[in-house]
């Protein structure tokens, strides 16, 4: 929602479709007035004067939301990440607290625009249910999928574009609920999603009273053993221990943190894969980080998707036993080349995820060109990504405190 209207790389046909759906969403007259976020119209886009603008009632710091007037090539780097996330976080918290409990509805939500992913969302809010349902009903090429019997919720990040969430182990939330007290975690690349992906993800975050929106965490598998984390310019990435999660987070900057432990490596260093203590002193070369003494309770395995190109991904980890890989690196090209391999990327990513879930070591053979597209959805140039404003430390700390107030860390670590 608080992002570019669409991915410029996808061309005018997708742009027109996105604007068309944006117009329909305006017609739905949906708002979160209590949270201070509303939808409005602006007569400033020549191609479609009914472009969408999202704004906060007290004004958006460092410039209003300008994406409607700039067309398909708008960059959102001028809007500080902390502003975007603060608005979303406040909206989620306020809305969850105000939700009625009598109304329950199942609606279908999908990822735009390439996949046929659909998910059940149980919501106690009739407005959200009706809005999401109408938005997704109007989306083209939406084939419903069969759900596993007894599925309660399907956990999916709004930017996932694999064609079948069952391949990712996301058909139920039972395993996740067992570890996290039935609290869904919906993640996504805030500020790097196209319009409908962001809105769908935002709706998901509002649909369940126990939902927390954590940026930089894309999805957990239903058995809580796989986490997808992407990018290096997302607020919260590399800081997951502040939110009480027990998993490894790796960022493109070469620094990654784990709960009560720090893993460090240098992208340019062939001897990478080192574990360091909290002071930065190297403890050992990375083999199986789940057995590291600093990590009291190992979290789910992690696929790391780095948004910086590497010509030698095989050198990033020096695993003594390739069958015992707890961390996987999925390389991606720079975005200028990435979109040339869109179809290859979609297929490779699906196969990669299936192999990861099956535990087969073949997954290492899928490093390479375009493999990250379906999961990363990297947009813009390398320079535009690097310009994204990092969330300040005090904002991170404040958000972490607020999350702990709502969902005590003990619940996540039990």
From TrEMBL:
<dbReference type="GO" id="GO:0006094">
    <property type="term" value="P:gluconeogenesis"/>
</dbReference>
<dbReference type="InterPro" id="IPR008210">
    <property type="entry name" value="PEP_carboxykinase_N"/>
</dbReference>
<dbReference type="GO" id="GO:0017076">
    <property type="term" value="F:purine nucleotide binding"/>
</dbReference>
<protein>
    <recommendedName>
        <fullName>Phosphoenolpyruvate carboxykinase (ATP)</fullName>
    </recommendedName>
</protein>
<dbReference type="GO" id="GO:0004611">
    <property type="term" value="F:phosphoenolpyruvate carboxykinase activity"/>
</dbReference>
